[in-house]
Amino acid sequence: MIKKIKASRSEKIIFTFIFVLAIFFFGSYFSIKNKCLFVKDFDPKKIEFNNPKNIAILSVPCGNVIIELYPNVSPNGVKRFITLVKSKAYDDVAFHRVIKDTLVQAGDLEFGKRGNIDYGKIGTGKSGLGNINSEVDSPFDFKKGSVALVRTQKFNTEDSQFFIILKDEPLYETEYTPIGKVIYGLKALEKIKYLDKSEYVLRPDFINSIRMLVN
Amino acid sequence: MNIIISFLLFFFLTFQVHANTIYNLIKIPNLEIYETNTTNKLRYLYAKQPFTIGVDNNINCYNSEKKILDKKYKIIKKNLDKYDQKFLKKINLKYIVLCEDLSISKINTAGIPDNVMKTLILDIKFNEKYFERVIHHEVFHIINDSYKELFNEKLWSNFNLKEFKYAECSTCTDKLGLDTYKKTDGFFTEYSRSTASEDMAEVFSHLMIKSNLNDIDPILKKKIQFIKLNLLKIDQSFSL
User: Fold this and answer.
1) Residue of B9, B25, B33 lying closest to A175 (CB–CB)
2) Of B97, B126, B155, which residue constitutes the final position of a domain?
3) What is residue A169's predicted lDDT score, i.e. its pLDDT?
4) Cβ of B2 and A99 within 8 Å?
5) Residue A3: pLDDT above 80?
6) Residues B170, B94 share a domain
7) Does B114 share its domain with B47?
8) Do the chains contact at B13 and A170, CB–CB below 8 Å?
């Protein structure tokens, strides 16, 4: 005859503890896996802007990043950026250079396109529109979220690549051409994939799209 | 081949990850911002730790106590404020690095100018007697390096007496005295006699600190005119 064995009180406690632990473990696993979990996605349609013509919406894996452009600070730089945005040239382009909590860089249209990345040359690609002159004379406070055009060691070599800083960089004033500032969604940029051992990212995150709020 | 290039590039780039903003801009490690809020947009940086740079790591400089740094910064700023932003941009000077016991190939030096990197490294512990003057002396080297064609050394040498010859280089001679002559004979200091560019820098620095020019000789007068005229070619609003 088989006797039904009842669990003791302490066994019940241990069982409950293991059950809670398992739920916590699996819950944490899926939370950590989803890097965008606590990132707010901003809907530009629900925000009122003072100057909607100068608003660009950068869509990245964790949501929208809303950038206000400053054509009065860098007319040529902003014009180039808008030209490329309107031709959808930045869509599917990699964030190929990312330094944790410091900056994200993208815009290599030649060697940074999804499905056609050239890791040996990434960061050196051109847009085909030619270089533009640096616009570094206007005062500009390079606060966290500032967007600027990339150049080589020489001035007047700006083209399509841009970077967004994730911390204040006062020394960038008069060094780089500022084109705008992130006004919403900086958190989404902090989640862009980076590597601990390299500034240049293997299997990087990509720009989904960049669009002007008003076409 | 592409795989090898990619691998080498990746290997090389992995060592850049710890480079900070200042290093990326001027290629000098271990620096921090001292002051950036200046009217002429000069950025003052200081050595937080000793650093070594240059060919074969031949340039060394050391960090300084905050007290000394604060004291010398005031003097340096007062002197460099004599140059406006427009002029500094033209001559390519933007970053001032403050450190102490600066040496190049184990020879102590007051400053190391680098117009390509827009940087002037200054030894803040350099002899107090000449400290303010050498700041301008080093600035002149930046000017000279940016406008070599204006400051022609042959033309300059022709101002001197025919029998006079400069040394091959500034450290190829023991003419290193920086005291200003009471009675000049074509030169402000003994160090002026070392090379043409050092001579020009000495003339410029004496002009910048408003030295007494009442009793100077005709050769020095010509040299002063030469410096003044060429500075006006760089910036018409520059006044000495």
Assistant:
1) B25
2) B126
3) 95
4) no
5) no
6) no
7) yes
8) no
Give CA–CA dist A170/B43, Å, rounded: 9
* A113/A132 same-domain check: yes
Q: How far apart are CA B19 and CA A150, in angstroms?
A: 17
In chain A, what residues touch B21 (CB-CB under 8 Å)?
A: 102, 169, 171-172
Quick one: A73 and A121 in the same domain?
yes
Rounded to an integer, the average pLDDT of B108-125 is 95
Owning domain of residue A53 = 44-212
pTM: 0.79
Residues 6+ positions from A80 with CB-CB distance below 8 Å: A129, A132, A149, A158, A159, A160
Q: Is residue A117 part of a domain?
A: yes
**Is A200 at the interface with chain B, CB within 8 A?**
yes
Amino acid letter at A52? P
Mean pLDDT of chain A: 93
- The domain tally of chain B equals 2
Let me know if residue A2 belongs to a domain: no
Does residue B175 surpass a pLDDT of 90? no
Residue B131 lies in a domain: no
pLDDT given at position B11? 44
- Separation in Å, CA of B63 to nearest CA in chain A: 21
Tell me what ipTM this predicted complex has: 0.70
Residue B132 included in any domain: no
- Cβ distance of B41 and A202 shorter than 8 Å: no
Distance between CA atoms of residues A89 and A209, nearest Å: 9
Residue with tokens 């780039």: B13
Cα gap A63→A186, rounded to integer Å: 10
Range of the domain at B167: 147-240
Say yes or no to pLDDT of A9 above 90: no
Among B95, B126, B157, residue at a domain's last position = B126
Q: Which of A119, A170, A197 sits opposite B6 (nearest CB)?
A: A119
Q: Determine how many CB atoms are found less than 10 A away from the CB of residue B155.
A: 12
If one counts the domains in chain A, the total is 2
Q: Do B10 and A198 touch (CB under 8 A)?
A: yes
Contact A119 B25 (CB under 8 A): no
A15 pLDDT more than 60: yes
